[in-house]
Predict the 3D structure of the following.
Amino acid sequence: MDHIENISNSDQDTKDFKKAARKAFFSSPGTTKKPYVVAVAYTDHLAVMDGNIQLSWNQTVGPGAPDRTISITNDGEWKYLWKGLVTGEGWFVSAYFEDKDTGQQVPIDESNCTAVPSNNAYPDRCNKVKIKVDNIKLKLSAATKIGRFFGLSSYNPVREGKIKLTINWVNRFRGGLSYSDGNLISICTRAFWQSEDTDEMNQTLIHEMGHKVGMMPDGTGKKPDKTETFYDSSKGHVGTHCYKGLPDGEVKYNKPGDGASSQCVMYGATNGKSAFCDKCTPAVRKQDISKGWDLF
């Protein structure tokens, strides 16, 4: 199929991806296996953007003022700039300095704002921004200019105020998706600006196939009973998943280190597991897939 850089959570991205996948799938022998066939299509990233995030902070600008480097965080967690993911899309939206005394706003050019990588091995994986501030100057009135010429003005080019920066950052990376309206699964080949290996992609495929057969059941209607280690989006990750290996009753199951301790392929993020745990296995075996799947 045609190469696709990223599938976000937008309707247009989903539509474009399905169109490309259909073109490949419907020209393959897979259609002869309906309804017992699942189509697996690959993309580079499955990243979701948060756009037009506004940040501000107090800042001294003007001659002699040092560059300012700010960390990009939200609620104490690192956020990464939308950089090097999709051709034609970037992290920088706008920036300006607002003078404390006059309220004047001075635009800051993108060339004076540098994305700083968290690891030099991955130059696009950036969670800081360095801003050059020693060249920021207010637009002076004619009276102020004349006063400065005759030594009558006390204007100080070193100014106090706020810098206001608007950016795009990554909301989340997804390893795969199981589409609810047919037999399509998507798997990413890249996440966090690096390539996924075959084991990671296969683990994601098993996870998404688990969703395709009905995991994780919540016990409603004719579904199997809710598993003991069931959690939903309210406790972290998007969708229904399994927290086997983690304590019961946690507020969130997507904390740092949770993935390493989890023990089931149905955990909400790639965790190195490729098998269903003892809590999920009975539910998998009870799923009724006799109707197969509609073609996407």
Summary: The radius of gyration is 26 Å. The chain has three domains: 1-46+174-196, 48-171, 214-287.
